[in-house]
Amino acid sequence: MVIGDPCKFGFIIERIREWEASGTYQSGIVFLFLDNTIYPDTVRNTTLNVDLYHLTRDDSPFMNPVIDPDLYELEKAKLFKTLYAEDMETDQDYKYVWWELQEIGDTGFKIFSVSNGKKIKIFGAKLHIDDVDLLNMVELDLDEYLSIANELKNYVDHGYEEGYKN
Q1: Of 24, 85, 22, which is closest to residue 50 (Cα–Cα)?
Q2: Which residues, in sequence order, are CB contacts of 156 under 8 Å at separation 6+?
Q3: In the chain, how many domains are there?
Q4: Segments forming the whole domain that contains residue 98
């Protein structure tokens, strides 16, 4: 299932029943695209009904992006440094926590977003032991973004039905 625009911002999700050991967990692949970059950069078995549930909860930063016009105006490096404090001694504002996607996070990638109420910036970073690579950032109209988020939520709510289209 393709949701959104993989060249700009979107997802490719596929449930793979052969990977499911029991009826409890739904397994498959999830790829997130930002400006022609794919996250994660390797194929990983994702527990769909855990990862996508957390992502599409009403209180998640994906479904309910933080609106902060002042933060939104910062340039990319300063914005990332504000949202992600590497030093655990630094007091962070956890409302800006990254999107909860286990398999993307396990490969060292973090995806963040912030909105000014009309537009949203989504950006990815790759965390290394001693530094951080800021990879890319996409800016979308908030309505376009929320349309993609709601389509993903509907797909999740319908149990990853093949052929489901909003």
Answers
A1: 24
A2: 48, 52, 53, 56
A3: 1
A4: 2-157
The gap from C-alpha 88 to its chain's centroid, in whole angstroms, comes to 23
Per the CB < 8 A criterion, the answer to whether 98 and 105 are in contact is: yes
Burial (CB count <10 Å: 0-12, 13-18, 19+), residue 90: exposed
Q: Answer yes or no: is 98 within a domain.
A: yes
* Region label for 103, one of left (φ > 0), alpha (ψ between -120 and 50) or beta (otherwise): alpha
Those residues whose C-beta lies under 8 Å from the C-beta of residue 50, and which sit 6 or more positions away, are: 25, 102
- Whether 165 maps to a domain, the answer reads no
Who wins on pLDDT, 135 or 91? 135
Tens of pLDDT, residues 101-121: 777 778 878 888 889 999 999
Please state whether 75 falls in left (phi above 0), alpha (psi between -120 and 50) or beta: beta
> 44-54: per-residue pLDDT in tens?
888 888 888 88
Taking the CB of residue 138, how many other CB atoms lie within 10 A of it? 19
